[in-house]
Inverse folding.
C-alpha cells in the first residue's frame, strides 16, 4: 500500500469499521450536517481521498475471509456514492475528479481481491480504468498524475491477464503499461511529496511490467534503483551497503538517466523537504520484495537474494509475509527443501496466531497468502518424496480454491513423481485442455511439459508430441526443446536432434542468463552423442560425398562439445566417455585435431605421444576412476582397448 493521501488518515472511519459494517460510521461519514457551505467542498475532497486510501487498506487485509472482504468493498463503494451525492449540485464539478479517483480505486482493488481466488475480472478492471481516465481532467497536480498512474496500473493488470489467458493468434505482448509509466516518470514535475511517491511507484511498476512478461533479469535495475534511492531516506544504512556491494545496476544494466534523475529533488527546489521515511516504508519494502523475487527467478542469484531477504526479516520487518514466502521459494529453487518448508511454515504460524489474537472474521483457510505458503510447502513435500503429505495439502487447497490451475498442476506432478502415471496423465490432460495458452510462465506450458515427462524415458514418441506443442508455440523454451531433441535422438532422428540441441546450446550460451549448469552440460553431451551415431550407408555417390563432408564437419564439432564440458567439469563421466569414443573411432591420427585441453586430465606424456587411441584409453581410464563399476564406462573402456589391441593385449583380456 503506497498510501498517497497519508496526511488525511485521521478523517472518517477505519478499515476495521468497514469490515465490521459499523452503520453509524457510514451515516457520520456521508453527512455534511453542521458544516458551512464553503467548507463542504473541502470536506468532500478529504472524504473521497480517505475512501481512496481505504480501498488500498482493504486490499492489504490478506487474512480476512473472502466474503467478508468483498462485502466491505461493496460497502466502501456505497460510501463513495453517498459522499458525492450528498454534496450540492454546484459543488460536484469540483469534487468529480476525486470522486472518479475513489470510485475507480474501489473497483480496481475489488478486482485484484477477486483475482486471488480466480482469474482477473477483466471488465471490472476496465471500469476502474475508465474512472481514472475521467479523473485526470483536473488542474490539481496530484489528482491528475495519480489518475494517470492508476490508469496505467489497470493496463498492467489487463496485460498480465491477456498474457496468461489470451489464446488469440494475433496476441502480442503488451507494452502499453510500461510506456505509460515511463511517460509519467519523465514528465511528472519533481517534488518531495505526493508527486515523488507517484514517481517512485511508477518506476516500481515498470519493473513489475517486466516481471509480468517473465523478463525477470530486465526488471532488476528498476527495483534496485528504487532501493538504492530509498535506503538512505529510510535510515537503512545496512541495506544501502548491501545494495552498493552487490553492484546490481552494474551487473544487470542501468536504467535511463532521465528516469533515475527524477528520484532526487534538486537542492534549490521550492518544494518542502520530505521528512525521513521509516524503514518499513511501503514503497521501500515493495521494491525489496520484488528485487529478491527477480534475483531468484532470473539470473538465479541466490546468495544476493538471500542476503537481502534475511536483512529485511531480521532488521526491518520480522513478519513480512511476502519476503518470508520469497525466502522459502528461494530455498526451494536452490534445492534446500527442508529449509523452504520451515520458512513457509513461519508464514502459516504467523497467520494462525493473528487469527487467534485478532477479530472473529479472520479465517485461516481462505486467506490468499496462506494458499501460497501451503502450495509452496506441498511443492517441497513432493521434492522430498513425502507424497501422501503433499496430496493431503493439495486436496485441502482444492476444497477452497476449486479447479485452481496451479494446484492441479502440482497434483499431477505429485502423481507423476510417485509413479502413479495413469492418475498423473488424467489430471494433466484435463488441465492441458482447460489451459490453452502456451507462453513462458503459464500453466498451459508447464502442464504440457509435465505431460511429456510422464512418458519419459519409455515412450519417446508420445512424449515428443507434447514437447513439440511447446517448441512450436515458444521456440526459446530450453527445457522443452532439450527434451524434444532427446526424443528425436531416441527415435533415431539424429540430424533433427542435432538441430534441436544446437538451438538449445545457442540459447544457453548467448541468452540472457548464460548458464553453465547441469542442463548445459547435458545438452552438450547429448549433441556429441548424436554426432557419434553412424548414419545408414547411402548408395548415391553424390549424396555420399555431401554426407562425408558433413561428417567431417561434425567430427570437428564433436570433440568441441565434449571439450566445453570438460573445461567446465573435468570429471564429467559422459564427456570423458564421449571424447574417448570420438578419439578411438578416428581412422587415423588427424594432424589438425586440437587435444591440448586434455593435458590436465590425462597428463602431458599422453599428449606428447600424439597417439589418439592412447589418449582414448587414458580418458576411459579416467572415467573408470570417477565412476567405478558403471557398465557404460566399462563398455567404453573395453572398446578403447580393442581399438588399440597391440598395446593393451593383456589388460584387454583381464578386463573382458
Amino acid at each position: 500500500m503506497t498510501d498517497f493521501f497519508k496526511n488525511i488518515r485521521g478523517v472518517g472511519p477505519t478499515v476495521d469499521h468497514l469490515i465490521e459494517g459499523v452503520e453509524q460510521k457510514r451515516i457520520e461519514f456521508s453527512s455534511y450536517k453542521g458544516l458551512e457551505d464553503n467548507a463542504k467542498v473541502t470536506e468532500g475532497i478529504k472524504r473521497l481521498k480517505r475512501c481512496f486510501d481505504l480501498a488500498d487498506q482493504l486490499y492489504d487485509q490478506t487474512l480476512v475471509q473472502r466474503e467478508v472482504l468483498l462485502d466491505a468493498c461493496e460497502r466502501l463503494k456505497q460510501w463513495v456514492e453517498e459522499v458525492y451525492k450528498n454534496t450540492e449540485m454546484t459543488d460536484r464539478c469540483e469534487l468529480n475528479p476525486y470522486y472518479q479517483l475513489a470510485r475507480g480505486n474501489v473497483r480496481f482493488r475489488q478486482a485484484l481481491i477477486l483475482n486471488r481466488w480466480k482469474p482477473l475480472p477483466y471488465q471490472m478492471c476496465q471500469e476502474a480504468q475508465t474512472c481514472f481516465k475521467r479523473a485526470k481532467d483536473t488542474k490539481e497536480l496530484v489528482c491528475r498524475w495519480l489518475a494517470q498512474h492508476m490508469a496505467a496500473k489497470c493496463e498492467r493488470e489487463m496485460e498480465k491477464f491477456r498474457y496468461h489467458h489470451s489464446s488469440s493468434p494475433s496476441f502480442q505482448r503488451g507494452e502499453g503499461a510500461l510506456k505509460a509509466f515511463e511517460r509519467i516518470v519523465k514528465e511528472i514535475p519533481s517534488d518531495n511529496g505526493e508527486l515523488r511517491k507517484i514517481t517512485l511507484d511508477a518506476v516500481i511498476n515498470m519493473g513489475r511490467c517486466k516481471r509480468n512478461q517473465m523478463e525477470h533479469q530486465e526488471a532488476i535495475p528498476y527495483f534496485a534503483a528504487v532501493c538504492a534511492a530509498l535506503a538512505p531516506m529510510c535510515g537503512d544504512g545496512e541495506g544501502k551497503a548491501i545494495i552498493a556491494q552487490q553492484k546490481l545496476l552494474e551487473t544487470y544494466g542501468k536504467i535511463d538517466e532521465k528516469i533515475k534523475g527524477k528520484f532526487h529533488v534538486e537542492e534549490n527546489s521550492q518544494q518542502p523537504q520530505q521528512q525521513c521515511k521509516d524503514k518499513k516504508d511501503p514503497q521501500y519494502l515493495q521494491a525489496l520484495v520484488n528485487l529478491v523475487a527477480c534475483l531468484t527467478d532470473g539470473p538465479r542469484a541466490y546468495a544476493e537474494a538471500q542476503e537481502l531477504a534475511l536483512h529485511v526479516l531480521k532488521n526491518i520487518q520480522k513478519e513480512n509475509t511476502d519476503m518470508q514466502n520469497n525466502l522459502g521459494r528461494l530455498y526451494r529453487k536452490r534445492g534446500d527443501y527442508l529449509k523452504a518448508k520451515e520458512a513457509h511454515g513461519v508464514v502459516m504460524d504467523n497467520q494462525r496466531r493473528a487469527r487467534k489474537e485478532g477479530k472473529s472474521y479472520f479465517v485461516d483457510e481462505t486467506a490468499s497468502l496462506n494458499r501460497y505458503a501451503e502450495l509452496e510447502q506441498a511443492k517441497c513435500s513432493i521434492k522430498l518424496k513425502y507424497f501422501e503429505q503433499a496430496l493431503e495439502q493439495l486436496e485441502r487447497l482444492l476444497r477452497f480454491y476449486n479447479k485452481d490451475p496451479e494446484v492441479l498442476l502440482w497434483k499431477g506432478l505429485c502423481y507423476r513423481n510417485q509413479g502413479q502415471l495413469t492418475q498423473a496423465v488424467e489430471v494433466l490432460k484435463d488441465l492441458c485442455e482447460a489451459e490453452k495458452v502456451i507462453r513462458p510462465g503459464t500453466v498451459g506450458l508447464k502442464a504440457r511439459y509435465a505431460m511429456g515427462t510422464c512418458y519419459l524415458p519409455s515412450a519417446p514418441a508420445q512424449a515428443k508430441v507434447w514437447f513439440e506443442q511447446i517448441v512450436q508455440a515458444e521456440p526459446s523454451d530450453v527445457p522443452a526443446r532439450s527434451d524434444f531433441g532427446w526424443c528425436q535422438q531416441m527415435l533415431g532422428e539424429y540430424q533433427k536432434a542435432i538441430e534441436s540441441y544446437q538451438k538449445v546450446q545457442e540459447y544457453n550460451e548467448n541468452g540472457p542468463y548464460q548458464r553453465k549448469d547441469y542442463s548445459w552440460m547435458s545438452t552438450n553431451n547429448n549433441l556429441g552423442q548424436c554426432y557419434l551415431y553412424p548414419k545408414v550407408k547411402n548408395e548415391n555417390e553424390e549424396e555420399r560425398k555431401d554426407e562425408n563432408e558433413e561428417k567431417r564437419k561434425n567430427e570437428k564439432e564433436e570433440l568441441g562439445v565434449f571439450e566445453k564440458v570438460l573445461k567446465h567439469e573435468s570429471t564429467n563421466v559422459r564427456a570423458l566417455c564421449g571424447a574417448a569414443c570420438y578419439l578411438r573411432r578416428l581412422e587415423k591420427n588427424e594432424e589438425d585435431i586440437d587435444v591440448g585441453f586434455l593435458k590436465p586430465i590425462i597428463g602431458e606424456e599422453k599428449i606428447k605421444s600424439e597417439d589418439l587411441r592412447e589418449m582414448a584409453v587414458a580418458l576411459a581410464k579416467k572415467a573408470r576412476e570417477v565412476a567405478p563399476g558403471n557398465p557404460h564406462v566399462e563398455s567404453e573402456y573395453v572398446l578403447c582397448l580393442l581399438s588399440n589391441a597391440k598395446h593393451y593385449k593383456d589388460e584387454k583380456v583381464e578386463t573382458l
